[in-house]
Amino acid sequence: MEIKNIYPTVEKRNLVRQNLLSYCKWSFIFAGIICAVINYFTGGKAWSIVVMWSMWLVWSQLISPDMVEYNRISQTIKFIINSCVLLGLIDVFLAPGWSVKVIVIICFSALILVSVLFFTDFETQRQNMFPMLNFCTLSLVAAIVGLLVEQSDDTYWTFVVMGSLAFLLLLAFIILLRKDFLIEIKKRFSSK
Length: 192
Hints:
By secondary structure, the protein is mainly alpha-helical. It has helices at residues 12-42, 47-63, 72-93, 99-120, 122-125, 129-149, 153-177, 179-188. It starts with 11 loop residues before the first helix and ends with a helix. 13% of the residues are buried.
């Protein structure tokens, strides 16, 4: 009996891409380790953490993006969250005292951008509702916590704007999607 190989042959282009990704991955890891070692021996502020997160941002957004949930809304939200974490790290490790206001302004601007992306192509983007729903919920919770914790008049208005936008977007989801909203929530949290 002769067995026939029915699997498709691997294209050379895919192998080249895989090898290139592997070399890039090890280069990024090596560069991160080198930065941490140099930062450790030179002392001072922990700039290597900011560098490593920046390399992670480049890796996850450009070189090896997600294969699941790869759409314009998910990728935009992922980029915004990674950028806000980077700004927070810069504030904590390098130049403290400015990031709260900037991060909140970026978040409510991102809420506006993502809602425009969602509602301009509503029928197609309905299936991408969940990342946006998560981002709105996270923004609303962050705004409530920020309003309770932050006492500065300078940043107070940013939390009010972010919380109001997040609440209005959640309300718009419920009104526009109605039954589909509940079905999507049940699908995501189903244990069957």
